[in-house]
Amino acid sequence: MRYLTVLSDAGCPLCRWATGWLADQPQLVPLRFVAAGSAKARAAFPGLDAAATLREVTVIADTGAVYVGDRAWIACLWALVAYRPTAERLSSPALMPTVRQLVAAVSRYRPRDGGYGAGCDGGACDPRG
Predict the structure, then answer these.
(1) Is 91 among the domain residues?
(2) Is 15 within the bounds of a domain?
(3) In the chain, how many domains are there?
(4) Does a structural domain hold residue 129?
(5) Percentage of the chain surpassing pLDDT 70?
(6) Are 125 and 37 in contact (CB under 8 A)?
(7) Sign of torsion over alpha carbons 16, 125, 58, 6
(8) Cβ neighbours of 14 (radius 10 Å)
(9) Domain range spanning residue 50?
(10) pLDDT tens digit sequence for 3-24
(11) 121 located within any domain
């Protein structure tokens, strides 16, 4: 695997913070960031449901593997120098339920009121309405 592409909601402040944090970390596998639902994302990944990629972080490996939600976060951690051992532990069958709960809990803090950024054309990219 040469790189991972991370699709996240550019209109979500929490998602932008997480993307910035990931970008600042030393990486074993380079992370590329593309706004979910954008023309660039749709052109690069025409087989993905653009609305679904706005609801949950999606990571695509250059091999074609697709990771969504909790597995996407683990893939991102796995790509980082300091967090690969943590990602390997978290991906164990015993810990995956806890990871799912954690990702769901953090996701509850995403804005739901349409207060998204200009990149969403007035909130039009928010499938949650």
Answers:
(1) yes
(2) yes
(3) 1
(4) no
(5) 81
(6) yes
(7) negative
(8) 14
(9) 4-116
(10) 999 999 998 888 898 899 999 9
(11) no
